[in-house]
Each structure stands twice: as C-alpha cells, then as structure tokens.
C-alpha cells in the first residue's frame, strides 16, 4: 500500500504494463543495451561518451533507485534521488576567453585597487587589464560630462571617491603600464614599430580623446598641472595620431598663451615633445599657429602681462630653432610683412598706416626676430635676414622722430643693441641716442611736477601732458645714460672703439656746455669720462700691435684677448648693471617684500616726573611733523590736548626754536605708544591664519 501511495501511476491494465515497466526500470537491461550499442554503432557510442557521459553512467542513479525500493519504509525519505546539474556547451564557448569577460556593472574601490595592482605588475601587463582600465576612465568621463552625473556604458562610476580613484590610477600608473606592454623600456623607441601597438591602437585613441575632454573642462590650476604632466608622458602616443595631435595642440596653445606660469611652462613642454616626435608633419603648422597666437596676445603690454610675453617669445625662439631650414621660410615671410607695413606708412602719410607700425604687435615682432637671429648667430641659415631686420628697425625710429615717441625709440635701440651683441655685428646705434640730446631742450622749465620719473618699459607713446612734467626729462636722461653705457660697454673691446665713439663724445660735450641742469650734466659727464678712459686704454693696447689690420683672424684673436682681460668701461657697466637690477626689483615688489620687517628702535620711556619736567610751561599743541602745506597742521596732535582749538600758526622763528626741544620729547612718547601697539598686533599675527 505504501509503494502505491509513493509512486502513483496512470490507470492501466496490470497485465499489459507490468512486465514492460520492470524491463524499463531494470539497470542491468539498460547496461546490456549500451554494450550492444558499442558494438553495433561505435560512432554514436563515442559521440555519447564525449558529449553526454550521464547517459552512459545511468547505472549509478538506477541502482540507488532500485535499492530504495528494497529498503525499509523509514529510509525512503532520506534516499530520494536528486538530479545533478545540467552540463551543456554553447556554440560560442570555443571563441570566448575567460580573461576577456569584464565584470560589468558598478565600479568599486576594490576593483580599482585590483586593476592598479595589475598595472604595477613587474612580470607582464595584460591587454585585458589595459582595455578594462581605459573603459573605466571612459565611464568616469561619461559621468563627468553627463547632466545627471550618471555614466551609461559597460561600467558605471558612482561617487566622487571612485571617480577620483579611477583618474588617479590612470594618471599615475597607466603610462608605465603601456610602455611595459609595448616593450618600450628603452627610451627613444617609436611606439608604432612595436608589434603589440596594433592591438592597443583603438583603445589609445579613445583614452587620449577622453583625456583632452577632461583637460578642456578643468578650471583648477593644480589639477590642470597634474593633467598636463600626464599628457607630457603620453605625448609620444599623441604624436602617433595626427587628428588627436592637432586637437591637443589647439588646447595646449591656449594654455601656453593665457594660463598661469606653471601651466604655461607645462603646455609648452607638451607642445615641444609632440612636435619633435612628428617634426616633419607638424612643425610647419605649429610654427605658424604659435606665431599667430603670440601676435594676438602681445597687443597690450602692462607690468602684469610683460612676463608672459617674454616667456612666449623665448619659447618661440626655441621652436624656430628646431629646424632652421623650415624656419627660414616663415621668418622671411613675416619680416617681409613688417617691411610692407613700414613701406606703406612711409609712402602714404596717414594715421592708419602709421598706427599699423607704431603698436606693440609690430615692436614685439621685431623683438622676437632679433632674439631668434641672435640665438642662431653661430649657424648660417638665418644670417642673411639680419640686414633687412636692422633696416626695418632703424626706419621705424625715423618714421615719426618726435618727442612723444621717445619710448618707442628706446625699445628699438634696445633691440638693436641685443642683436649687435649676440650676432657680433656692428650697427650704427649711437646717432639715434645722441640725437635726443641735441634736439630736445632740457633747459626748458616744466609746467607740471610729477612725484617720480615716468616708466618707459610698458609704453610706446607719451601724452602731451606727460611731456610737460619734470619726470619726463628725468626718465629720458636715465634711459639715455643706460643705453649709451650698455652699447659702449659691448663695443669697448673692439679695435675701432675710439673711432666709433669720437663723434658721440663731441656731441655729448656740446650738450654739457648748453645744459644748465646739474643733475643731467653730472650723469653725462661721468659717461664721457668713462668712454674717454676706455678709448685711451684701447689706444695703448693698439699701439702694441705688430700684425696688419687686414688680417681678420689675428684681429679677432686680439679683440677676444682684450675682452677676456676686461676693459675699464666693461667693468664699470657690470657694477652699474647689478645695482640697477636691484633697484628694478625693488620697484616691482614695492620695496616691502625685499626689505621685510624694518628693525625697531626701542626707546626707554621717561618717568612721570621727568615727563612733567620736560613739558613746556605753555601747554599748547606741538607740531610733530612740520609741513609746507598749512592744511596738514591739524592732522597731528598730542593725545593729552584737551583744547578743541586748532593749532596756532608759527609766526616767528624764535617760537619754533623754543618749542623744538620739548617737541622731540613728546614725539618720543607718542612713538613709544605707537610701537607698543604694533608689537601687540605682531604677537597676535600668525602665518597659519593665512
């Protein structure tokens, strides 16, 4: 009865089905049939043996089932047959690799740590690791650029901690891992020649594109600095793809011209490295783009923009020096454009044409090409361009030789002096400087008083009101003195120095006779004395010469020996230059940063009795800081003055003398009080508060 209840069967005739059911459930009969199958159809049997072993091992489960039937009723529940797991192979199993199956879904910090450890592996870096990391970086970029902050793709980056971890992992460890995978441990190897480059090529394009997007969206200078350093490491791969390289250079040129100082330097290093890796393809377009960017950003010059313009000019000289044969075509074309502008200004006397020459873009272009020709003076490719550049610069001075454009004249003269010094080429510069002394009347009285001399470093043209100030004449004399001293010091070792400076010395002496301002004549007389002293030194050395003056080699060797030995004028200029640089730095920093905290004189306080004895009989207000301005008398009073009446004016010299001695003592007391307050303030002040 229990067996019937355990295994209910469909109603059937017991006579017809009894024997058949027993044969079907008999494992021995099934085993015999399988043996017959092996002999009758061996191919089918082998197929079953390879693909489905459960059918051949049917006897194991069957015997257990049969034993269940013969056992006691109490063990039936424990011996129930449980089918094993299904085993089946899909059609795609032969083409799939377990390593190639990434873990899909949300990225965790644990996953990032695992990838980071795989990137730092010393043995070998797998391609799957690199592709997974690049996909994770792409997911982070999708999160950063999407509106809702969610990334849709194979991976998802959620949370700022995971985002930062992914970016940090790629910046710190991905470049080294790629080099290790490509086998580029030795420097100077082209990535495109590595055998594994084709496998990672598409992934690199994706990663570099995402990196450029990230650069375009960053505003923090610190983060931008880190990303530019990373781009500098990846620059060798950027150069492999021309489209990516052009996109990168476009962004880098913007950073190079408008960024903060550190950002500018890193952007230029990236530009330089990308260009040098594809110099034949990229150099021509990079030079043109950098020059146009330089001209665009040097339109306005101020003390804040001047350092950036100088950096762009020096870096452009570096770029043009990479290949002088390619650079010659660009330099020739741009100098020719400057000459065309100058010719139009000379021929057509209109304000618009003059303004096309007398502006900062034109002057800074002259400065750039002069620096380039001076830096490449030891190579012959660009030397033929020195003459046209000098002619353009000198005719720019002659275009409008008025007093208003003295600052532009000084800028052009400074350009010529530097070019003459670097290229070792004689240029007639002295007439442009001495002309100022002979054409301007320095005895003319000024109509306005200026507190300090004008600064010509960031201006090209003076206003008419500035010409009336006394600071204008002071600045002109100072600038003339510095430029004359610098040029004559550069030429002080030449054998023709007495002849070069003879006419200039005569004209300066005429100025000394006509000028009645002692401050101006004192400087120029000192300059003439130094020039004449150097001329006598050269004449003494020249008298000892035994070779012919037509022997250029012997003449060059003689001048080199004189320069090495040193001349009186050169020694004087070096000492003056050191002092002048210190003064310029003080002006830039407003004297406070260099001077620091000034030392304080601690004065002993007077006792109460002594203070009472020191007070005058007439307790009137005492003038601590006498001034010529009558309106300033009321600004300084003693603290113990109870009278509201204003201080009486000093009518006679005798009263001033009587009040002079007690005024000093009262000033000491007030200074002591002020010093005490300052000391308290300094004690409360801390650097950590900033």
UniProtKB/TrEMBL annotation:
Q: Where is the composition biased (Acidic residues)?
A: 17-26, 60-77, 626-645
Q: Does the keyword Nucleus apply?
A: yes
Q: Keywords, A to Z?
A: Nucleus
- Biological process (GO), any one: negative regulation of transcription by RNA polymerase II
Source superkingdom: Eukaryota
Positions of the UniProt region annotated as Disordered: 1-101, 604-678
Compartment list:
Nucleus
Major location, coarse class? nucleus
Q: Name one GO molecular function term.
A: histone binding
According to the UniProt entry, which residue ranges have a biased composition of type Basic residues?
651-665
- The molecule here is called Uncharacterized protein
Q: Organism, per UniProt?
A: Helicoverpa armigera (Cotton bollworm)
């Amino acid at each position: 009865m229990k067996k019937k209840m355990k295994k209910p069967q469909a109603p059937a005739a017991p006579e017809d089905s009894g024997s058949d059911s027993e044969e079907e459930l008999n494992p021995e009969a099934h085993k015999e049939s399988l043996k017959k199958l092996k002999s009758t159809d061996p191919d089918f049997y082998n197929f079953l043996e390879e693909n489905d072993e459960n059918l051949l091992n049917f006897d194991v489960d069957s015997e257990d089932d049969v034993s269940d039937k013969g056992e006691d009723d109490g063990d039936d529940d424990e011996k129930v047959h449980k089918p094993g797991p299904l085993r089946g192979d899909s059609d795609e199993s032969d083409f799939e690799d377990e390593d190639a199956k990434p873990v899909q879904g949300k990225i965790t910090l644990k996953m990032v740590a695992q990838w980071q450890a795989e990137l730092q592996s010393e043995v070998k870096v797998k391609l799957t690791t690199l592709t997974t990391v690049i996909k994770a970086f792409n997911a982070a970029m999708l999160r950063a650029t999407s509106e809702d902050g969610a990334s849709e793709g194979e991976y998802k980056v959620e949370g700022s901690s995971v985002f930062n971890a992914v970016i940090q992992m790629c910046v710190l460890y991905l470049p080294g891992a790629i080099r290790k995978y490509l086998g580029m441990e030795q420097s100077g190897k082209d990535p495109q020649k590595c055998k594994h480059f084709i496998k990672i090529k598409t992934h690199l394009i994706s990663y570099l594109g995402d990196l450029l997007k990230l650069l375009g969206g960053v505003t923090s200078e610190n983060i931008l600095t880190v990303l530019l350093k990373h781009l500098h490491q990846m620059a060798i791969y950027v150069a492999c793809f021309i489209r990516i390289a052009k996109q990168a250079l476009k962004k880098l040129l913007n950073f190079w011209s408008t960024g903060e100082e550190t950002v500018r330097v890193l952007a230029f290093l990236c530009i330089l490295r990308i260009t040098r890796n594809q110099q034949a393809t990229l150099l021509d377009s990079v030079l043109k783009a950098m020059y146009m960017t330089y001209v665009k950003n040097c339109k306005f010059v101020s003390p804040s923009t001047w350092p950036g313009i100088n950096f762009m000019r020096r870096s452009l000289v570096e770029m043009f020096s990479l290949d002088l044969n390619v650079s010659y075509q660009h330099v020739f074309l741009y100098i020719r454009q400057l000459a065309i502008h100058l010719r139009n200004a000379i021929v057509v006397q209109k304000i618009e044409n003059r303004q096309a020459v007398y502006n900062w873009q034109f002057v800074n272009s002259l400065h750039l090409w002069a620096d380039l020709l001076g830096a490449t003076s030891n190579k012959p490719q660009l030397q033929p361009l020195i003459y046209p550049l000098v002619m353009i610069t000198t005719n720019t001075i002659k275009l409008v030789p008025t007093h208003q454009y003295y600052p532009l004249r000084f800028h052009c003269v400074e350009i010529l002096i530097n070019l003459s010094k670097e290229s070792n080429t004689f240029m007639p510069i002295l007439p442009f400087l001495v002309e100022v002394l002979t054409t301007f009347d320095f005895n003319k009285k000024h109509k306005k008083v200026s507190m300090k001399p004008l600064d010509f470093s960031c201006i090209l043209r003076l206003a008419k009101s500035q010409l009336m100030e006394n600071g204008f004449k002071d600045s002109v004399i100072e600038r003339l003195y510095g430029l004359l001293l610098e040029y004559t010091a550069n030429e002080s070792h030449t054998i023709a120095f007495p002849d070069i400076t003879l006419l200039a010395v005569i004209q300066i002496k005429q100025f000394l006779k006509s000028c009645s301002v002692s401050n101006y004549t004192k400087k120029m007389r000192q300059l003439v004395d130094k020039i004449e002293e150097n001329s006598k030194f050269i004449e003494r050395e020249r008298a000892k010469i035994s070779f012919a003056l037509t022997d250029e080699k012997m003449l060059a060797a003689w001048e080199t020996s004189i320069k090495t030995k040193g001349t009186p004028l050169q020694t004087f200029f070096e000492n003056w230059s050191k002092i002048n640089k210190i003064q310029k730095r003080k002006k830039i920093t407003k004297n406070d940063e260099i001077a620091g905290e000034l030392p304080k004189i601690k004065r002993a306080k007077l006792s109460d009795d002594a203070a009472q004895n020191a007070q005058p009989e007439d307790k009137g207000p005492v003038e601590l800081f006498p001034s010529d301005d009558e309106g300033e008398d009321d600004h300084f009073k003693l603290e113990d003055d109870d009278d509201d009446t204003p201080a009486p004016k000093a009518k006679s010299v005798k009263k001033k003398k009587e009040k002079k001695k007690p005024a000093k003592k009262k000033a000491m007391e007030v200074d002591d009080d002020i010093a005490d307050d300052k000391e308290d303030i300094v004690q409360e002040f801390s650097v950590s508060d900033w």
